[in-house]
Design goal:
Number of helices: 15
CATH architecture: Orthogonal Bundle
Helix content: over 70%
Radius of gyration: 25 Å
Distance between the termini: 66 Å
Oligomer: single chain
Order of helices and strands: HHHHHHHHHHHHHHH
CATH superfamily: ABC transporter involved in vitamin B12 uptake, BtuC
Number of domains: 1
CATH class: Mainly Alpha
Strand content: under 5%
Shape: globular
């Protein structure tokens, strides 16, 4: 009895102490904290499950029946040389576009920013189409992607020159939109001057975006650009981390803002250019992927970029699996299907933004 009384007294004195009252795990807020963490954990479990389903769906689709395990040497060759390169290339392109979109949204402080508005994708497309029109490269030449990347870097140079020495977010967007319009007009002129209808059709289909009929060489082309861009972003990680503040506040923190913005745009240019030259113009991935990650409750800039890489890869793999599964006379282009999904999403974002400012 005496022992029970001493234990009751100890519990009463402990619960009355300030340490007990302010402890996160023992106070009344513990249940809410655990619930939030549990909910975030469940979201990640669901995202991982969706990613696994997208990969399995993509690998097994494309034939007369869904199958993961090849039964014949021919099916084994198809899996290794056609399906797997297509899967990896789709994931790499989604990763590149997702990261590029997240970086632009953070740097420009605009949730509607995506790689297409910088004009870089248009510059890469113009360089590639011009090289094909002039007959300097074959459509399957490995030198063609490097020409496209040079076009993307030239677009970056134009963007930087016209945006000024100390570019602001709004000015970068306006200059990018103007460059995108100019490059789009040049592409239209080149298509009109195509030497024959077959060339016109081939170039037009390439511009619509697709990862079909690509092999491992395209994967080896994309991976170095992703690696170099990752190094640039890691080098500028502290500047990225402070993008939660206004530009005026960031300028007082001792950063060389102009140089850091150029390095971030260089990373975006590499990612966007290599995506264009390997898969054509695929829009809206850079817009949708960062918002999907924010729906998981992620708000830290570096975490948003890392999550957007995963989200963009899963999204593009899932859409390409859908393209492979659709029973159409001619396989739909990946960029067309992405646009049908991304355009309504953009309208939803615009409506939500209007309601927030109302």
């Amino acid at each position: 009895m005496a022992l029970a009384q001493r234990f009751a007294t100890l519990v009463k004195s402990t619960s009355a102490s300030p340490c007990f009252k302010h402890c996160k795990w023992l106070s009344g807020t513990a249940s809410g904290y655990i619930f939030r963490k549990g909910r975030e954990f469940m979201k990640w479990i669901l995202a991982t499950f969706i990613a696994l389903l997208a990969v399995l769906w993509h690998i097994g689709s494309g034939g007369d029946r869904w199958s993961l395990i090849p039964d014949t040497p021919l099916e084994s060759y198809i899996l290794q040389q056609i399906r797997l390169p297509r899967l990896v290339l789709a994931a790499c392109n989604g990763m590149a576009l997702g990261v590029a979109g997240a970086v632009l949204q953070l740097m420009l402080r605009n949730p509607l920013a995506e790689p297409g508005i910088t004009g870089i994708s248009g510059g890469a497309a113009v360089a590639t189409v011009l090289a094909l029109y002039l007959g300097q490269f074959d459509p399957v030449s490995l030198g063609l992607p490097f020409i496209g990347m040079l076009g993307g870097l030239f677009a970056l140079l134009c963007l930087w020159v016209f945006a000024g020495r100390y570019p602001q977010g709004v000015r970068i967007i306006l200059v990018g939109v103007a460059l995108a319009a100019i490059f789009g007009a040049i592409i239209a002129v080149v298509l009109n001057l195509a030497p024959n209808p077959f060339a016109f059709q081939e170039w037009a289909l390439w511009l619509m975006g697709s990862v079909a009929n690509r092999g491992w060489p395209y994967v080896w082309l994309v991976l170095p650009a992703i690696f170099v861009s990752g190094l640039i972003l890691w080098w500028q990680r502290r500047f990225i981390q402070v993008q939660v503040f206004d530009e005026q506040v960031v300028e007082t923190m001792g950063f060389e803002t102009s140089r850091s913005k150029f390095m971030l745009l260089l990373a975006v240019a590499l990612l966007t250019s290599v995506s264009v030259v390997s898969a054509g113009i695929v829009g809206f991935i850079g817009l949708v992927a960062p918002h999907l990650i924010r729906l998981l409750g992620i708000r830290q800039p570096l975490s948003i970029i890392a999550g957007s890489a995963l989200g963009g890869a899963v999204l593009l793999v899932a859409v390409d699996a859908l393209v492979k599964s659709l029973n159409t006379r001619v396989e739909l282009q990946l960029g067309v299907v992405i646009a049908l999904i991304g355009a309504p999403w953009l309208l939803v974002l615009l409506v939500r933004q209007r309601r927030q400012h109302a």
